[in-house]
């Protein structure tokens, strides 16, 4: 299809090497020890791809291009340096939106100047295959852009995290999607501008519509899904250009996002379709909540907590999104250090959906200098709760709810949870007894005999415990 | 390259991606997202071609904007990944 492009074997080889570097970049992430070397491979691959492109094309406007790279690069670099680790989900969403928009712009440029991309036949018509690739590229890019903008606004708190439900939204969404696909098919026979721009406009629209009904707790899935889309958009443009680096990268990123979405869905025991359909946590669920009225529970103080943990042999800390919101990770690590100094074994248990994006808690703990070999995933540590003296739950709720194992009517039934209730004592840091988790379900752990509720801001509570431990 | 060769690369890369990503430790899932973000900005190659070509001024400007956006991502994505990875430390003993 792309015979028109004269292919220099060295150029093709350079792009292939860039693609392989990107594979190595992801491969490096299999362990923290090799991860930084992997990242260097990624940078090298990117530099190679950019330089190869620049030296093998007639450049009519080098200063402008270098200027664009400098401006964009400076903004990106400064943002990356300054961003708080708690804000990573927003940053990633914002970056996704840029990839999406860039894909849209490249597809539009290819449409306006197809000769530059060698995708026209002798009669000046764009190849049929290229039209499909361009159509898909611009559609996926536009969906990635507008969807990520909404995800960003929700994560950043500019927009309520509550799902916004339009009446008849499934019909509207499916209709819009069908229209986009139909128009891309029609684009093969008619390359007039209205078809192209209508696809673009509808795709921007569907991106907004798809994300607004999805609630805050489902954001890890949404962010992963948009990650996947940004990859497929790059792959589609790679097809248009016949560029192996772009295709390999697109496939890598696409699968990566898809796998992360799958892991997140599984960790919530929800089907991908039900997340996309949206609305989780919108209506208060009938079950569990009914029994909520006035059950007895015990309140503890920071001194009690310090005493209990100081006496313990092993303490497992279970952090959740509330810890991130309160920025309690540094105080938490200090608490862990003091306990370790007293001979207590301290471990951290991370649920896959704790936080607002995959691996969010791990980054925050790493930021606070918690060694990564003290941090464990759910399946690796869950059996240990039974032999643990204190489970210290901070800012997590639904992921510790035993109703997920026993109550078939509970909306979170079937979700894998951390068995904190099996520990000898559960210390549960929570702002107040009023609020329930995102799923809107009451948690039986609050009312157990071996549970002590520590009602306060997470950071303040941990700091007070640190103070008591210091004595 | 003909369409079938490109498609072959794509399909095989999907399989590579599948196996490589499953081997990523869950502790590094956030850096994984940041770095995939950075590498998907390889779309800058298309943006460079568009902005380098003479012929259509509008295509050139779209290309230049895309170059700037992708650069934000490339520099930002790799830098933030590097920053995160530098924080992962083993127990000092």
UniProtKB/TrEMBL annotation, chain A:
<dbReference type="InterPro" id="IPR012136">
    <property type="entry name" value="NADH_DH_b"/>
</dbReference>
<comment type="function">
    <text>The transhydrogenation between NADH and NADP is coupled to respiration and ATP hydrolysis and functions as a proton pump across the membrane.</text>
</comment>
<feature type="transmembrane region" description="Helical">
    <location>
        <begin position="12"/>
        <end position="29"/>
    </location>
</feature>
<keyword id="KW-1278">Translocase</keyword>
<dbReference type="Pfam" id="PF02233">
    <property type="entry name" value="PNTB"/>
</dbReference>
<keyword id="KW-0812">Transmembrane</keyword>
<keyword id="KW-1003">Cell membrane</keyword>
<feature type="transmembrane region" description="Helical">
    <location>
        <begin position="171"/>
        <end position="188"/>
    </location>
</feature>
<dbReference type="InterPro" id="IPR029035">
    <property type="entry name" value="DHS-like_NAD/FAD-binding_dom"/>
</dbReference>
<keyword id="KW-1133">Transmembrane helix</keyword>
<feature type="transmembrane region" description="Helical">
    <location>
        <begin position="65"/>
        <end position="84"/>
    </location>
</feature>
<feature type="transmembrane region" description="Helical">
    <location>
        <begin position="91"/>
        <end position="112"/>
    </location>
</feature>
<comment type="similarity">
    <text>Belongs to the PNT beta subunit family.</text>
</comment>
<keyword id="KW-0472">Membrane</keyword>
<feature type="transmembrane region" description="Helical">
    <location>
        <begin position="132"/>
        <end position="151"/>
    </location>
</feature>
<feature type="transmembrane region" description="Helical">
    <location>
        <begin position="194"/>
        <end position="214"/>
    </location>
</feature>
<feature type="transmembrane region" description="Helical">
    <location>
        <begin position="41"/>
        <end position="59"/>
    </location>
</feature>
<protein>
    <recommendedName>
        <fullName>NAD(P) transhydrogenase subunit beta</fullName>
        <ecNumber>7.1.1.1</ecNumber>
    </recommendedName>
</protein>
<dbReference type="InterPro" id="IPR034300">
    <property type="entry name" value="PNTB-like"/>
</dbReference>
<keyword id="KW-0520">NAD</keyword>
<feature type="domain" description="NADP transhydrogenase beta-like">
    <location>
        <begin position="12"/>
        <end position="467"/>
    </location>
</feature>
<keyword id="KW-0521">NADP</keyword>
Automatic annotation (TrEMBL), chain B:
<feature type="transmembrane region" description="Helical">
    <location>
        <begin position="32"/>
        <end position="55"/>
    </location>
</feature>
<keyword id="KW-0521">NADP</keyword>
<keyword id="KW-0472">Membrane</keyword>
<keyword id="KW-0520">NAD</keyword>
<keyword id="KW-1003">Cell membrane</keyword>
<feature type="transmembrane region" description="Helical">
    <location>
        <begin position="6"/>
        <end position="25"/>
    </location>
</feature>
<keyword id="KW-0997">Cell inner membrane</keyword>
<protein>
    <recommendedName>
        <fullName>proton-translocating NAD(P)(+) transhydrogenase</fullName>
        <ecNumber>7.1.1.1</ecNumber>
    </recommendedName>
</protein>
<dbReference type="Pfam" id="PF12769">
    <property type="entry name" value="PNTB_4TM"/>
</dbReference>
<comment type="function">
    <text>The transhydrogenation between NADH and NADP is coupled to respiration and ATP hydrolysis and functions as a proton pump across the membrane.</text>
</comment>
<dbReference type="InterPro" id="IPR024605">
    <property type="entry name" value="NADP_transhyd_a_C"/>
</dbReference>
<keyword id="KW-1133">Transmembrane helix</keyword>
<keyword id="KW-0812">Transmembrane</keyword>
<feature type="transmembrane region" description="Helical">
    <location>
        <begin position="61"/>
        <end position="81"/>
    </location>
</feature>
<keyword id="KW-1278">Translocase</keyword>
<feature type="domain" description="NAD(P) transhydrogenase alpha subunit C-terminal">
    <location>
        <begin position="7"/>
        <end position="90"/>
    </location>
</feature>
């Amino acid at each position: 299809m792309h015979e028109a492009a004269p292919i220099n074997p060295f150029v093709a080889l350079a792009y292939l090497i860039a693609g392989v570097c990107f594979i190595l970049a992801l491969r490096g992430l299999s362990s923290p020890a090799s991860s930084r070397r992997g990242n260097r491979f990624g940078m090298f691959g990117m530099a190679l791809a950019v330089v190869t492109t620049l030296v093998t094309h007639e450049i009519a406007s080098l200063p402008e291009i270098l200027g664009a790279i400098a401006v964009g690069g400076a903004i990106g670099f400064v943002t990356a340096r300054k961003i708080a680790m708690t804000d990573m989900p927003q940053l990633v969403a914002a970056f996704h939106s840029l990839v999406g928009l860039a894909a849209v712009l490249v597809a539009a440029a290819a449409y306006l100047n197809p000769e530059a991309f060698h995708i026209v036949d002798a009669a000046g018509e764009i190849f049929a295959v290229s039209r499909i690739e361009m159509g898909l590229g611009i559609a996926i890019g536009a969906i990635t852009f507008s969807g990520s903008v909404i995800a960003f606004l929700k994560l950043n708190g500019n927009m309520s995290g509550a799902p916004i439900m339009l009446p008849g939204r499934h019909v509207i969404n499916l209709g819009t999607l069908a229209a986009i696909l139909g128009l891309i098919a029609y684009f093969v026979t008619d390359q007039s501008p209205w078809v192209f721009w209508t696809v673009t406009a509808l795709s921007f629209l569907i991106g907004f519509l798809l994300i607004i009904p999805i609630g805050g707790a489902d954001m890890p899935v949404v962010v992963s899904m948009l990650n996947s889309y940004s990859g497929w958009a790059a792959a589609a443009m790679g097809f248009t250009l016949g560029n192996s680096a772009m295709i390999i990268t697109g496939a890598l990123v696409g699968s990566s996002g898809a796998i992360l979405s799958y892991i997140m869905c599984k960790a919530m025991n929800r089907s991908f379709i039900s997340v996309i359909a949206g609305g989780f946590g919108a209506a208060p669920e009938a079950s569990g909540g009914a029994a909520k009225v006035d059950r007895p529970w015990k309140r503890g103080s920071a001194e009690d907590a310090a005493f209990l943990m100081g006496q313990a042999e092993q303490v497992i800390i279970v952090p959740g999104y509330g810890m991130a919101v309160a920025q309690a990770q540094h105080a938490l690590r200090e608490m862990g250090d003091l306990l370790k100094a007293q001979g207590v074994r301290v471990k951290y248990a991370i649920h896959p959906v704790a936080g607002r994006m995959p691996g969010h808690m791990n980054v925050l703990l790493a930021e606070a200098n918690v060694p990564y070999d003290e941090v464990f995933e759910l399946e690796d540590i869950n059996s240990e709760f039974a032999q643990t003296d204190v489970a210290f739950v901070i800012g997590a709720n639904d992921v510790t709810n035993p109703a997920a194992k026993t109550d078939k009517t509970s909306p979170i039934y079937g979700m894998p949870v951390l068995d904190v209730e099996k520990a000898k004592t559960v210390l549960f840091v929570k702002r107040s007894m009023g609020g329930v988790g995102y799923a809107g379900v009451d948690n039986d752990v609050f009312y157990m005999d071996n549970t002590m509720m520590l009602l306060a801001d997470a950071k303040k509570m941990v700091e007070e415990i640190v103070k008591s431990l210091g004595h | 390259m003909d369409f079938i060769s490109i498609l072959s690369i794509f399909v095989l890369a999907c399989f590579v991606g599948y196996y490589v990503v499953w081997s990523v430790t869950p502790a590094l899932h956030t850096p994984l997202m940041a770095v995939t973000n950075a590498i998907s900005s390889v779309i800058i190659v298309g943006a460079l071609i568009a902005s380098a070509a003479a012929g259509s001024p509008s295509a050139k400007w779209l290309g230049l904007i895309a170059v700037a956006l992708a650069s934000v991502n490339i520099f930002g994505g790799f830098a933030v990944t590097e920053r995160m990875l530098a924080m992962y430390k083993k127990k000092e003993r």
